[in-house]
User: Fold this.
Amino acid sequence: MTNTPKYGFPKAERLKGGAADALFRDSKSGFSYPYRFVWKCRPMRPEDKAEVSVLVAVPKRNIKRAVGRNLLKRRTREAYRLAKHPLIEAAKQKGLHVDMGLIYSTKEIVDYKVVSRGVESVLAKISRGL
Assistant:
């Protein structure tokens, strides 16, 4: 049986609640068009169900209509889902859990290609920073 990666985005990989608040308090940050990203890593605990947890945000200040915000969140989650494996492997090798937030930070709705390149760039930067 081959060890093919799973391309899902399960609930365990979604960052929410108090962990999201803690992420914005003490974390590292950066920018890769069209995203501002924040991330923090800690040693893996037994109660962690995934190596990486992600928060996707599209501020109402930048994109006024909910349809546009939902479109960009969907595109971001799709790009993350397809490009997440190198980051997960790096975190697994080092025994770390990574919490990260992707905040869309431009006022126009960009194509999926731009979103995908931005997410891949963010994931590469975080992988290098582990």
Notes: Residues 35 and 104 are 5 Å apart (CA to CA).
